[in-house]
Records
---
Amino acid sequence: MSDMRAENGHLRVSIWRGKSEGCFVDYQVPARANQTVLDVVTWVQRHREPSLAYRFACRVGVCGSCAMTVNGRPRWTCRTHVGKVARDGRLRIEPLRNLPRIKDLACDMAPFFDKWQRAGGRFKGTATRKAPMPRLDPSSPQRRAADAAIECINCAVCYSACDTVAWNPDYLGPAALNRAWSLVNDVRHGEQDAIVAAAAGAGGCHACHSHGSCVEYCPVELEPTASIAGLKRRTLRGLLTGGDT
Amino acid sequence: METRLFVLQRASALLLAPLVIVHLGMILYAVRGGLTAGEILSRTQGSIGWGAFYGLFVLAASLHAPIGVRNVLREWTAWRGRSLDTAMLILALALAATGLRAVWAVIA
């Protein structure tokens, strides 16, 4: 707490204004005992800068829409306490990396979700509406692998943290591949082969350098690197058994 | 194709790791012992063992290097697609041809 109240109970907050061209604008924001980065941005928008563009919805870490870059690190701002990230009472808030900027702190998420689709991330069940509810064994290795990857909130923090995404525009990214791994292990999904083929293609799992930034920054503590390693094993198995990979 | 290239690069790395260590050890041995070029050639000429060792070395390097260079170029430049793949195939063939020629020169 001591470091965030560096200046008479006020934080010094630099917020990116503009699109790809723009600049940081400084604001003084009252420091509170319990205050998230999203609270800070909201205070600026309500009291100083009504035209400030940013995105949020649930404010409780479920919707995944409020991710921004805070002091150089991608974070979910609604669950990031200012006291944990402020340095000498300063915050530097900018949009997520690796995504086109729309205005101020709002990014265009379309490339992120397009890649989710390209990775085969849309569930396609094989059962009909009249079929009985499938019985899934939650302790089976396959279901445990699916469950380990399933809690993604699509915040794009991993996508922003990933250097391979920055280098390789074709790379599907950690979230899309994590989703793919979840579906590959879902016995109700009908198109596993399509997922494996997408994962084995250009920009798929073999483009990952295993830096682990996605694991480091994932706010819900998923391990996309492990999911991608699983896809690598799966594509190798496909190759050895004569699959089209 | 990406999976095949991934496997080829890892498999060639597995081969290259011990080959490089033996190769470096051989250089140190030859230099410390004060062997002349003629003395080295007298040991390698006609040796099927050294021919196989360095032949394998060259082939593994010819596979490993172009796949890695392809990955680097795809990440750091806008070059990709068929022209890049063709260029890397030419690089692989050039490495194999010049390397095997060098092996032949010290074995034959």
---
Amino acid sequence: MMSTIENHDREYIMIWVWLVLLLGAGMMVFTLPIARMPALALIFGIAAVKATLVLRDYMHLRSERMLVYAIAFVPVILALGLALVLIPDIVYRH
Amino acid sequence: MSVGIETASHKAYTEGETTGIPMGKIGIWWFLASEVMVFGGLIGAYVLFRIANGGWADQAEHVNWRLGAINTLVLVTSSLTMILALSAGRSGRHQRAANFLLATVLLGLTFLGIKGVEYSREIAEGFTPASGMFWSFYFLMTGLHGIHVIGGIVFNATLYIAAVRGTLWSEHHEDRLEFAGLYWHFVDVVWIFLFPLLYLA
């Protein structure tokens, strides 16, 4: 029992190490010889990976039932959709 | 993934009859879903305004990304201490759980302290919510997030007091630690996106 708990704790610490490494990687992106748009895509890609690690391992989404997924991700889709449908307005006006 | 033993009476008390998921957990996820719409709408509006107004690069360059990065590290570390508190609580290591809860509260206060230093520097340099669209969004989004951090600190501090007194570890109260953790990690996830949006982009 205790070794299982210690394994879980070790896993949580490893996730934290990854989060710190990804934080460092995100800040290093603008030192790379790449254009601004790919750099931004990389930065937000790294942020998405960090958020996924927290959601999956610290919020235990990987062991949750479908109902929790539905509650969690429907508003994400709605919020993304809300922003995406307004993009044509931005494109045509500016 | 969860560590610990759940008794039959505990399950009967906390689980919904049809979902098999504790009522409190469904409740906190519904709450977080509404929070996704609040922050999602705000972030969406910020991104669209920024695209429409040429990027605000001249205004955005004045934020202190080093302090923002330190605060990200502080909040990510507080997520670790929070999950270690839950792990310790579920395995009966109550003193260890209380210590990690206290660490989470202190890290939350550290985050607010650093944010306060940032605000005071920015305001001293003449950047206020009225200084332009970028600064309006910056103060609104970080301020709203800060209010959520304060809420989390109050929640966690309440649990810490209950843990020290021993009342947190009764059969029906232990789940509160998990619910507080879900909220705290959500606050962390929001900051994970706010940091690149406001400090790096």
